[in-house]
């Protein structure tokens, strides 16, 4: 007996409700645009400061929370903190792409990208479990950048802030390990 592809009204409504997530993914795309703008603004300030623009240097110093001697030119610490900030924006942007593309593909609708030359490698085997692990590792990377920025600028932070940021980072790390371990334990059971 052939399977009837038509759903009854209630299951059809429930299944169609997945499209309510579409505005959320579109909103994340707008957030991505804000991150692109922030990245370019910081990059322009960095280039201007490298060429001696005092206002750009002052803006950078304020944005990274650097305190210390009055700067006349860009020093290595400020440069490192700004570049880490740029890397942080890129990593958060990567996280957004994983959530937007992977979430849409997993929970809303197929994108039919098979064979497309720009299809992300990870998308071919994405599911909710893989997405959780990828997001966990991305969050650890972002947390690592924040922690490194804090340690480079440690003189401007209270000892408690340094301790709590380290503890929070370790909690992210342990959570990601636990998620990956749980998924690995469940993987053999799911393959049967």
In short:
This protein is mainly alpha-helical. Helices cover 72% and strands 0% of the residues. The two termini are 26 Å apart.
Give a verbal description of the structure.
- This is UPF0114 protein J2X20_000502.
- Belongs to the UPF0114 family.
- The chain crosses the membrane at residues 20-40, 78-101, 135-155, 161-182.
- The protein is mainly α and 192 residues long.
- The protein has helices at residues 9-16, 22-50, 54-64, 76-108, 128-152, 159-191.
- The protein has one domain (18-187).
- The chain is built from six helices and no strands.
- The chain is elongated, with a radius of gyration of 22 Å.
- The protein starts with 8 loop residues before the first helix and ends with a helix.
- The model has no long low-confidence stretch (mean pLDDT 85).
Give the secondary structure arrangement, pairings included.
Elements: H1 9-16, H2 22-50, H3 54-64, H4 76-108, H5 128-152, H6 159-191
Helix pairs in contact: 2-3, 2-4, 4-5, 5-6
State the assembly state of the protein chains: single chain
Approximately how much beta-strand content do the residues carry?
under 5%
Describe the sheet with the most strands.
Answer: none
Helix and strand string, N-terminal first? HHHHHH
Assign the structural class, choosing from mainly alpha, mainly beta, alpha/beta, alpha+beta, or little secondary structure.
Answer: mainly alpha
Low-confidence stretches: none
Contiguous helical run count: 6
Please state the overall shape, judged from the principal axes of the Cα atoms.
elongated
- How many structural units, i.e. domains? 1
Ends apart, CA distance between termini:
26 Å
Instruction: Compute the average pLDDT.
Output: 85
